[in-house]
Each structure stands twice: as C-alpha cells, then as structure tokens.
Amino acid sequence: MTFTRRYVALGDSFTEGVGDTDPGSPNGVRGWADRVAEQLIHADPSWGFANLAIRGKKMRQILDEQIDAALALEPNLVTIYAGANDILRPRVDIDQLMDRYDDGVRRLRESGADVVLFTGFDASASAVFGTTRGRTAIYNELVREIADRRGALIVDYWRLREFQDWGYWDVDRMHMSTAGHTLMAVRVLEAMSASHRIDLPELAERPALRRLAQVRADAQWAREYLTPWVGRRLRRVSSGDGLSAKYPALVHPRWASGAS
C-alpha cells in the first residue's frame, strides 16, 4: 500500500508504549503513539505509521539509531521524546545533551516534517524519582527553547497535572498505565488540533492505605521493580536489549481498521 501521509514515532519506553499491555501488539505493548496513529488513520486512511521507539534508549541512541531511519521514511509528522533515561543517570551534562537534541530536531524539521516534542514529567510526588525534579525543570526549559527555535509543537507533560493521579500509572510506578497512555493520546491529538474519537478513561477510586499497609506496598514495589531497575543500571544493561522496533516500516497496524 502506498501512504501519502506518514507518521513516525521516536523515543524510548514512553513512546514504545510500556505500561499499556497488549499481547496482540509487537513487544506486547500498545501505547499513546499507536493510539494517535489509529485516530489519524481513522480520519484519513492515507496515513501510514511507524514506531521506532525502544524502551531503555538514551538520547544518543535515539538520535543515532532512529533519526536517519525516520528520515528514510519521508515523514510528514514525527513525535519524539528523548532524554528521560539520561536524566535518571547519576551524572549528565544537560546542556551538551540538549545541543544534540536541537540538532536532531533541526534535521527533522528541515526534512519538511511537522515535529511534536514533550517536556518531562514532574515527578515531585515520587520519593525516588522526585530527586531529579531540578534536572527535569532545566531540561524542560531547553525543550521549550528548541520548540520555539525550530517551529515544533510541544506537549507540556510537566503541566498536565492530571497525571499526578496514580491511577494513570502502571504498577511499576515508572510508566503510564493503559489509562495514562489513553489520556496522553488525547493530549497529543489536542496539541496537533486533530480530531479524535477517544473517550477519556474513568479511573477507579484507590482507597488510601493505612501506614503499615503502605510501607508493605512500598517494600514490595522496591523488591519487584526498583531493585531490578537499579541492578540493570549497575550492570549497564537495558530492558530494551534484544528488542526491535515495533513497526520499523510504515504500516496500518491491526487496530487501525476502526477507532476505539
């Protein structure tokens, strides 16, 4: 099939769709980018979609491995979020990082593609990841400057306060849940002024845990998710090692036959 309009999604686990489990999708996840593509294709079947994002990728890897691949597909639209995994490292030169990011966005924009960028999430509510809040705030200001300089759209994740509700997060407390990815798809489409048929999810109420129960829940989370995450970083391995991009070529994925 020949696609006259082409959307390519770039990034890490956020864009790959980790947390939005779907056994029928490649890598076992769906995600907000796939949901955005579904709406675009529903409105205009001439859209093709590729998702090159792979979990665990740092900015250098995303720029080196995904930009050229995206440009080869001659995209009309690119979404890219990179840098979150760098910010979580013990040391990072944010200015140098963002200089490279700016160059990558420049290349995408000079190809003629519309580009959508993202600020980082405000993790102040997390006892673990909240320690990177200052870095993320600096990153966000530089992303806004890049968006202004390059004429890119921006989804201001930092200011989407509804994501402070833990109902939008997976049990690993690191990735959005299905509800979170659904809400993010809506916010991305709104930033693009694109129509959609996505109903915002209703969150089930989560009763507050008593102190002892919360301590136990936190300890279980640390054993099952935080400790393995730290261990991978100490061993310099990634959750994405051995994985391939979900949709490396332009396609109409199986879910594109109708919006849901």
From TrEMBL:
Name of this protein: SGNH/GDSL hydrolase family protein
Species, as recorded: Arthrobacter echini
UniProt keywords, alphabetically: Hydrolase
InterPro entries: GDSL_Rv0518-like, SGNH_hydro, SGNH_hydro_sf
Xref: PANTHER family: GDSL-LIKE LIPASE/ACYLHYDROLASE, PUTATIVE (AFU_ORTHOLOGUE AFUA_2G00820)-RELATED (PTHR43784), GDSL-LIKE LIPASE_ACYLHYDROLASE, PUTATIVE (AFU_ORTHOLOGUE AFUA_2G00820)-RELATED (PTHR43784:SF2)
One example GO MF annotation: hydrolase activity
Residues in SGNH hydrolase-type esterase domain copies: 9-182
UniProt lineage: Bacteria, Bacillati, Actinomycetota, Actinomycetes, Micrococcales
Keyword tRNA-binding: no
Record-linked CDD domains: SGNH_hydrolase_like_1
